[in-house]
Structure formats: C-alpha cells, structure tokens
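Recall that a protein's primary structure is simply its ordered list of amino acids. Everything else, from secondary elements to tertiary packing, is in principle encoded there. The following example makes that idea concrete.
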Amino acid sequence: MPGPIVHVGAVVTCMHAGPAQPTAPFPRVMVSGQPVVTLATPYVVAGCALASVPSPPCVSAQWVVGATRVFAGGAPVITQTSQAICVPTGQGLLVLTTQPRVIAT
C-alpha cells in the first residue's frame, strides 16, 4: 500500500502514546532534508503509558513490513502504512505525522 516515506523527524509512538525514536536511520538517503528510516532501523520507545503488572511497557520496536518497491541501502524504506512490533507487548507503532511529498509503494 503506498504511503509517505518515514524520516527521522516523523512523529512515531507506540500504541500507548509512548514516543518512539529511530536508533540508526539511513543517512545517505534524505527526504525533507532528513535521513529515511528503513526496515533494518530499530526504534527505542520512552515513556510508554502501559504500566500494568502483567504487561511491562513498550521498550523497543522493530519494523516488519516496509515498502515493496523502494529501497535505501538494500533495505525497504518505511512508509506511514508500514507495520512494526513492540517488545515486549507485541503491539505496533503508529506513524502520526511524516513528510507528505515523497510517496513509496
């Protein structure tokens, strides 16, 4: 499914509104002047609101579905419609805002 490419400045959160940041974006490809995020880029989550005893809060996340036709450094780029899995909850990430100009499928 086509969608805007996610870059370092995109607003990404876990399902519990904890902000997520990429730890190693791909610096050789830029959109809106910022490096893109690829399928190989792990995310770290800080401030996850899930604080119940049986389920610990989200700590990190990894993208599992990226673009099918656009790659950066051999890895699929992440789009606003891509899917990720948070550890240890198993829930996803939400891309709330990103640059609107560059679309990938």
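Residues 40 and 75 are 7 Å apart (CA to CA). The chain is about 0% helix and 45% strand.
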